[in-house]
Design goal:
- By secondary structure, the protein is of the alpha/beta class.
- The chain is built from eight helices and five strands; from the N terminus they run βαβαβαβααααβα.
- α2 runs parallel beside α3, α4 packs parallel to α5 and α4 packs across α7.
- It is globular, with a radius of gyration of 16 Å.
Length: about 210
């Protein structure tokens, strides 16, 4: 059945660390479908945070006047702390000197990984410090979840239980906000654990 475009709230333009088939993309596109948001990948390949920042900047500059219902987001985690810092700096500089007609860039940063958000939605109190531990624990709490890679893409669908994610989302949002508030004088990329994707989740749900 075709989507009723008159109901679309906004368009989310995405540049995700795992490309268009990664964990971040899987969750956000499913969430957009639940809340009648349109989504477009501005870069479909897997990339490091610095590359994503540059691709998002280039997209914004080449595609002026996207409209009030358009948002541009980059999503990445803390695999390479130095490149994360560079990405933040590039995006911050771009937004501070935003050219007429360009769309500002939003960041959804997660530490140690996007699975941190899944664990919050599962009401896990003690979040592990490493990506592999988070992935393993999320599979324990959400059996349908398997970390998705290009080599196992077909074998692990579906892997986010959206009903379970939605059930725990309100609690997860509050915990994610509390983490940020408790580290108010720190840069986001220095906070761990952290689930900055909560900002994008809230935006999609509005």
């Amino acid at each position: 059945m075709a989507r009723d475009v008159s109901r679309i709230k906004k368009t989310i333009y995405l540049a995700c660390e795992g490309g268009d088939i990664g964990t971040e993309a899987n969750y956000i596109t499913n969430l957009c479908n639940l809340y009648d948001c349109s989504y477009v990948f501005v870069y479909k390949k897997s990339a490091d945070p610095e590359t994503l920042a540059m691709r998002a900047i280039d997209f914004s500059e080449r595609n002026r006047w996207l409209g009030k219902k358009s948002e541009l987001w980059v999503i990445f985690d803390n695999d390479d702390h130095d490149k994360v810092k560079v990405a933040y700096k590039k995006i911050d500089d771009f937004n501070k000197n935003l050219k007429r007609g360009c769309t500002p860039i939003n960041i959804a940063f997660n530490a140690p990984t996007i699975e941190t958000w899944g664990l919050l939605c599962c009401n896990v109190q003690n979040i592990p410090n490493t990506k592999k531990e988070c992935q393993s624990l999320l599979h324990e709490k959400m059996p349908s979840y398997i970390h998705k890679t290009r080599s196992n893409e077909k074998a692990c669908k579906p892997y986010f239980d959206m009903k379970q994610m939605e059930k725990g989302c309100s609690y997860a949002l509050q915990r994610a906000k509390n983490w940020q508030q408790s580290a108010i004088y720190s840069q986001e990329y220095d906070i761990s654990p952290f689930a900055g994707i909560y900002k994008l989740v809230e935006s999609i749900k509005k």
